[in-house]
Amino acid sequence: xxxxxxxxxxxxxxxxxxxxxxxxxxxxxxxxxxxxxxxxxxxxxxxxxxxxxxxxxxxxxxxxxxxxxxxxxxxxxxxxxxxxxxxxxxxxxxxxxxxxxxxxxxxxxxxxxxxxxxxxxxxxxxxxxxxxxxxxxxxxxxxxxxxxxxxxxxxxxxxxxxxxxx
Length: 166
Ligand SMILES: Cc1ncc(COP(=O)(O)O)c(C=O)c1O
Hints:
It contains six helices and six strands, in the order βαβαβαβαββαα. By secondary structure, the protein is an alpha/beta fold. A six-stranded mixed β-sheet has the order 2-1-3-4-5-6, sandwiched between helices. The longest helix has 11 residues, at 71-81. The protein is globular and about 50 Å long. The protein has a single domain, classed as Aspartate Aminotransferase, domain 2 (3-Layer(aba) Sandwich). The protein has helices spanning 17-24, 38-47, 71-81, 103-106, 135-144, 156-165; strands at residues 8-12, 29-33, 54-59, 84-88, 115-119, 129-132. The site of pyridoxal-5'-phosphate has 10 residues, from loops.
């Protein structure tokens, strides 16, 4: 949805299954790079058309391996090649960064990550999740996503969690 037919999604080969499945719903070209290998990512970025959207999607902490993404190097590459970054912080929330706020905070790079998503189903022991980005991006997602919050049931536990986070 954020990337179109002429654009690219660059995925770490060990990204969570939900990212891989999500990428299949997109018409974008999907390029996978070797796990946490910034040389491999650079080589994939070199293949992308200069004027296309290039969205790098990575786990903050990889589910099965427990590795932390090499975000500082990844940010440098993204800046060099004009790519955007999305971090799935499912396994980082409550663990890394200031007050457990995640991977970008851990590296002091919150301003350099375009999209941060998290689930409430792990360290928050609830359900649902969030995506954080600039206002324009969130607005775009709200109006273009095939899934809206109208389709989601809120329970008391989730309401309480959202209240606490606010
Ligand atoms: C890295 C990662 N992202 C996303 C999810 C999806 O979380 P949920 O569907 O429980 O909200 C999971 C769940 O295992 C995960 O490990």
